[in-house]
Amino acid sequence: MADEASRQEWTPPVRTSRQEHTPPARPPVRLTEEEFEGVKRYLLLDIVLRVTDHDLRVMDASRVKMQRAYRKLLLALQDRVMLDMAALRHRFRKAGIRIYGQERDRGGVTAWFACRGYHHRISLLSAFIRAQAEEILLEYLRPDRLRSEGSGKFTHLSNAQKSRPSEVPDG
To answer: In angstroms, rounded to a whole number, what is the distance separating the alpha carbons of residues 167 and 75?
Structure first.
């Protein structure tokens, strides 16, 4: 008789509703605004890098007067963009963010990324991309930024400021 009792099959308990499932001890960590802005900036920097690469090829094929100077400027700008992209990728790794798809068309760019197990999509329209890419380029071309970032090739315009005439009272 002991053999018959031990031969009974074990059956798992049956759930009657979803309410019996215990929720996780803490809520999941969602994508923060800062992380979203980082993904957006990374996509824009990638576009800026492509634009400067295109401009370098066009410049090499043209007969611009100061081609070497413009080329050095664009190469220095590309170096800064690539360093910032590397820093963003490092932050993404620490935060568990991975961009796994991009699609470009005439309307703009759409990218898919995962952040701590949650999948997201970001779409940037062409007009927005153009305006933001221009702002980023201007940001990189500011003389104080170029000087402070240690490129050594560009100097701050302090000599121009010193050569201004001293304050002359009105009147």
So the answer is: 39
